[in-house]
Design goal:
The protein has about 220 residues and is α/β, with parallel strands linked by helices. The protein has eight helices and five strands.
């Protein structure tokens, strides 16, 4: 005869249900910290900043303060273009990386490089990372006004297009809230100061948390 819960007295039934809950399989959880790599140019590398002041360090601190078990590595190279980034991608992002924040294109823009080339390079980067099972957060960039409307449109539109194509999280403008704000820039007027980096981290953190939440569990 099949075992039926309805034949048990309420006290015994409660005990059976409690034991079942205690020994039910737990939801999968990560045993190791989420490994994040910041892959970019001088904005990522922390040009002109001291130890602990750069983007990856401040982001790691901010995410940990929010309860995320993360390690954020700095793979930024000052002066890097998307072509340079593509050339070093495979050895700059180690095995075991869960998420890469791709922040490249500013130096291409400053050199007036054809946006089609920038898009092709970033497209290849994202494709390679996803083929390795690494998720991507794409940090966009905007063109300087002096490059003209046509260039600005072509350059600015490539980041949303790539994010949609690959289904990755997009942060539209890495320097949002900092560009042209003298009190948040270093003396060169181009790179964020410590406070500027803090502003960037505050603004991008929700997008990073979104990307972390989308990572495979276990």
């Amino acid at each position: 005869m099949a075992f039926k819960y309805k034949f048990l007295c309420p006290a015994v039934l409660w005990s059976v249900m409690l034991l079942g809950a205690m020994f039910a399989p737990a939801a999968p959880a990560r045993a190791e910290p989420v490994q994040i790599v910041g892959f970019g140019d001088s904005l990522m590398a922390g040009f002109g900043l001291g130890p602990g002041e750069g983007f990856t360090e401040q982001l790691q601190d901010a995410l940990r303060a929010k309860g995320h078990d993360v390690v954020v590595a700095n793979a930024g190279v000052s002066g890097d273009t998307t072509s340079g980034g593509l050339a070093r991608l495979d050895w700059s992002v180690p095995d075991g990386t869960d998420l890469v924040i791709v922040e490249l294109g500013a130096n291409d823009m400053l050199r007036g490089i054809d946006p089609a080339i920038v898009e092709k390079n970033l497209d290849e980067m994202i494709s390679r990372l996803k083929a390795r099972g690494v998720d991507v957060l794409l940090a966009g960039m905007l063109a300087a006004p002096n490059l003209g409307h046509a260039y600005g449109e072509a350059f600015g539109s490539l980041y949303p297009r790539l994010a949609q194509k690959h289904g990755v999280v997009l942060y539209p403008f890495f320097l949002d809230g900092v560009a042209a704000e003298k009190d948040l820039l270093s003396e060169d007027g181009m790179h964020p100061s410590v406070d500027g980096i803090r502003t960037i981290v505050d603004r991008i953190a929700p997008a990073v948390e979104q990307a972390i939440a989308a990572l495979p569990k276990g």
